[in-house]
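User: My instructor asked us to take a sequence, write out its structure as tokens, and then describe one feature of it. I'm not sure where to start. Here is the sequence I was given:
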Amino acid sequence: MNTLFDKIWDKHVVQNVQDGPTQLYIDRLYCHEVTSPQAFDTLRDKGIKVFRPGQVFAMPDHNTPSDQQEVIKDPVGRKQVETMEANCKEFGITYFGMGSRDNGIIHVVGPEKGLSLPGMTIVCGDSHTSTHGAVGALAMGIGTSEVAQVLASQCILQAKPKSMRINIEGTLQPGVTAKDVALYIMAQMTTSGATGYVVEYAGSTIREMSMEGRLTLSNLSIEMGSRAGIIAPDETTFAWLKGREYAPKGEEWDKAVAEWKMLRSDDDAVFDREVNYRAEDIEPRITYGTNPGAGVAIGECIPTLEDICPEEQAGFLSQLKYMQFQPGEKLEGHPIDYVFLGACTNGRIEDFRAFASVVKGKKKHPDVVAWLVPGSWLVRQQIIDEGIDKILEEAGFELRLPSCSACLAMNPDKVPAGKLSISTSNRNFVGRQGPGARTVLASPLTVAASALTGKITDPRKIQA
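Assistant: Let's start with the prediction itself. The structure tokens for your sequence are:
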């Protein structure tokens, strides 16, 4: 009667504190430059060493520029990266430095290197740690003080969340991606609808998804408030992980797969909540507000004030005022200024293949500024090996260097105030892409179509 979440959680319980949280063992800790410095200072102040440095991997990504990687010009960002490198050297932690072949966005690099594996518990001082749940791991974002806990003890104190299963059945329509599925779920659930839960994604639609699609879906779990998102590992998972740098090899691989095949919810498993959706109801999606749940199908209009319950109307109007949109307005055809392809949500090879499939043989609109940023150096090399860079170049696009880039305004890729960006990233908060910047979230296909026309465009209306 156990869920997949129960099985992983129970296997990692060190002890249950009476009338308190659970002491949970952590298999993998990832660190980046923004949330780790204070954690290392805590260890240094207390004279504590890192308990198991071999299970910790670190890399800069938030402050990394995407136009060049010789120097970080911002003094605060440069200091954060220099501090992380020094901390990793002092405490014996594996560090993938800026510009090295191992570097990239931590939530892209971890899975692609086989550092994130089924059945693991994984944490990082970053909310989008939920990404790693796509491989069948329990992956959670944690705070800086908790990062210090894990560095010191390889454990974390955590109250056990509730369990939710979201079932999606059916085959997705052409032009609909995992990003659209996630945006659809958030619009139905709201950005707090899964608060306090670990969500398992299940159903035929999920089983048919590629690993890249699953990583996108799991990445966005946090945006509806959930503690983590997880997908049961299957043959798609195993085929994708096999041969990766840190994945088991030879007999160890066969043994691991035999164990991983047991990582599924029992047929009679009971969840605290179950939700069901149909793939046929999902169309390409866009957001209109300043949270990822404020979205519609691309052909629909923004809700009118009458569609919004009275207690939410003030917030609704505030979002629209910032976005410079009107209640009832149709956004399809609205002019855009910037496009961004990348982030830990959509910075993988499949995302660049999708973008290239739309723009091949066509030209970028001359008024659009485009940032196309791979999630890792491995992804960038795949793009080059497959000749995708040539397709992009011929269409008027530039392939940039791996970085979090325009997902958040912590590096040079900032959208200017008042400008409208259509982006494959994960958050459209006020100022997320730059002070005063306005963000519409969408899939790589929709972003590509919009880059060609200079306006928000349904990818299904672009002729191949």
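For the description part of your assignment, you could build on this observation: DSSP finds 16 helices and 18 strands in the chain. Try explaining in your own words what that tells you about the chain.
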